[in-house]
TrEMBL record:
<dbReference type="Pfam" id="PF08395">
    <property type="entry name" value="7tm_7"/>
</dbReference>
<keyword id="KW-1003">Cell membrane</keyword>
<feature type="transmembrane region" description="Helical">
    <location>
        <begin position="53"/>
        <end position="74"/>
    </location>
</feature>
<feature type="transmembrane region" description="Helical">
    <location>
        <begin position="94"/>
        <end position="113"/>
    </location>
</feature>
<keyword id="KW-0472">Membrane</keyword>
<keyword id="KW-0807">Transducer</keyword>
<protein>
    <recommendedName>
        <fullName>Gustatory receptor</fullName>
    </recommendedName>
</protein>
<keyword id="KW-1133">Transmembrane helix</keyword>
<keyword id="KW-0675">Receptor</keyword>
<dbReference type="InterPro" id="IPR013604">
    <property type="entry name" value="7TM_chemorcpt"/>
</dbReference>
<feature type="transmembrane region" description="Helical">
    <location>
        <begin position="179"/>
        <end position="202"/>
    </location>
</feature>
<feature type="transmembrane region" description="Helical">
    <location>
        <begin position="20"/>
        <end position="41"/>
    </location>
</feature>
<feature type="transmembrane region" description="Helical">
    <location>
        <begin position="320"/>
        <end position="339"/>
    </location>
</feature>
<comment type="function">
    <text>Gustatory receptor which mediates acceptance or avoidance behavior, depending on its substrates.</text>
</comment>
<comment type="similarity">
    <text>Belongs to the insect chemoreceptor superfamily. Gustatory receptor (GR) family.</text>
</comment>
<feature type="transmembrane region" description="Helical">
    <location>
        <begin position="398"/>
        <end position="417"/>
    </location>
</feature>
<feature type="transmembrane region" description="Helical">
    <location>
        <begin position="148"/>
        <end position="173"/>
    </location>
</feature>
Length: 448
């Protein structure tokens, strides 16, 4: 028992950056999402190295995915087609299949064409951490490793629950989709999920380093408020945070701290900008396909709940609604994960400006004021932001944009459904008939 506990403790402990990201790259490399794997050299030092295995996985994945898409379109085999068969549902499912194919190609091809940018970002964070050590910050990579493992476990848990719900709905509905359709769905979900995991890890890394930088500047402001001007020796862990520990940072010359902070902020902005360049087209395709699926899944659910297609197929309404609602929720979670990940990093970067200006108001030394003014100008010109190919910003304003567009398209689709409802004759009314006014109005609407 002791040996097992010690083995697990060793696996969950990381004393360097690359060990903390090893589980993430193990899965992304195996699935072809990234072209790199964490390997150890002869001296035992870990680093990211390109692997030919990922190229084979990408080729096989794209070939099989292309075959499944062609088969699905040619044979017109879709989930909704087994229940509803209208021009809107057929066109919607074909659009989703084509968009899924385009999304898979872009995500996997980007991995090959822009892999050097991803490598540069992941190799740049250890350099940023070395700069942090000069101003009293030491990183706890064990916490980072545990965070990565928990994210992987949570992703696996979500997939397990989703598969159980999907299979349960298929059994209850007495429907068995083709393996090609199942492969398209699972491949798309796995590719999107692990791409978002890599993106969110970089956003978390950016947020943590901005948090550490803000803590350093706040500590400096606190020391000025308490008139601490004498140099103090470095002491162990004045304040322990989730992923780093802080030391005393009072030195003979506070200008050195400001200069180091400026350089660190510039490096963090460079890393965030490069990450955005790598993920920009991937995020655009992921958000687009997620929006498309949300629109049509919501439409299918509303069609059934409103009773407009109640006689077009024999199925259980509860299972039907559960299946498409679950699929819709998965893609809502994908969009929320992307937006919240980037938004947290943006919010941390915005707090730095307020802290720097607070220091500027308290500074009395001319040289120190000049450094802080330079830092203020840098903050003005170097801002962290994320976009999807420059078409729209990835922040919380995207929620409002998507909600408005979703409402608009749903109204349009429902109106098309109304226009395609076959005409019904007026029902005969008996002398003592007590038909509700609501039913009469509904018949008049349909007849008109």
């Amino acid at each position: 028992m002791f040996v097992v506990r010690r083995t697990f403790a060793k696996l969950l402990c990381a004393d360097e950056y690359y060990k903390s990201i090893q589980p993430l790259f193990f899965f992304t490399h195996a699935l072809g999402i990234t072209s790199y794997a964490v390997v150890s050299n002869e001296r035992g030092f870990k680093a990211l190295k390109i692997s030919r295995y990922s190229h084979i996985v990408i080729f096989l994945t794209l070939s099989l995915f292309a075959y499944c898409c062609v088969y699905t379109i040619y044979c017109n085999v879709t989930y909704i087609g087994q229940f509803l068969n209208t021009d809107i549902t057929n066109g919607g499912e074909m659009a989703i299949v084509l968009a899924s194919g385009i999304a898979a190609v872009i995500v996997l091809i980007t991995n090959t064409l822009r892999r050097r940018q991803l490598l540069w970002v992941f190799e740049y964070f250890p350099k940023i951490d070395e700069s942090f050590e000069r101003i009293g910050i030491r990183w706890n990579y064990t916490k980072v490793l545990q965070n990565v493992i928990w994210q992987l476990i949570f992703t696996g848990f979500i997939f397990s629950i989703t598969l159980v719900i999907f299979i349960g709905c298929w059994v209850r509905l007495e429907v068995l989709p083709s393996w090609q359709l199942i492969y398209i769905t699972l491949n798309q979900l796995i590719g999107i999920s692990f791409t978002i995991l890599v993106f969110n890890f970089l956003m978390m890394s950016t947020k943590l380093r901005l948090t550490a930088l803000n803590k350093v500047l706040k500590k400096l402001a606190h020391q000025w408020d308490n008139s601490i001007v004498k140099p103090m020796p470095k002491q162990r862990s004045l304040q322990c945070l989730d992923s780093f520990s802080m030391y005393t940072i009072v030195t003979n010359n506070p200008c050195e701290i400001i200069q180091e902070s400026m350089e660190i902020h510039h490096m963090i902005c460079d890393a965030a900008s490069t990450a955005n360049k790598y993920f920009t087209y991937q995020l655009l395709t992921i958000i687009s396909i997620a929006f498309l699926l949300i629109v049509f899944d919501a439409y299918y659910v509303l069609e059934i709940l409103l009773g407009k297609s109640a006689h077009e197929g024999k199925f259980k309404t509860a299972e039907f609604v559960t299946f498409f609602s679950c699929q819709m929720i998965l893609y809502v979670i994908a969009i929320v994960s992307i937006v919240e990940g980037s938004n947290r990093a943006i919010q941390k970067s915005e707090k730095t400006s307020g802290i720097v200006h607070s220091l500027l108001n308290k500074a009395k030394n001319a040289e120190l004021k000049e450094k802080l003014q330079q830092f203020s100008l840098q903050l003005l010109h170097l801002k962290i932001h994320f976009t999807a190919a420059g078409l729209f910003n990835i922040d919380r304003t995207l929620y409002f944009t998507i909600s408005g567009a979703l409402t608009t398209y749903l109204i349009i689709l429902l109106q098309f459904s109304n226009s395609n409802v076959p005409e019904h004759p007026f029902p005969p009314m008996e002398e003592n008939d007590t038909t509700p006014i609501r039913s009469l109005v509904s018949n008049l609407t349909i007849g008109g």
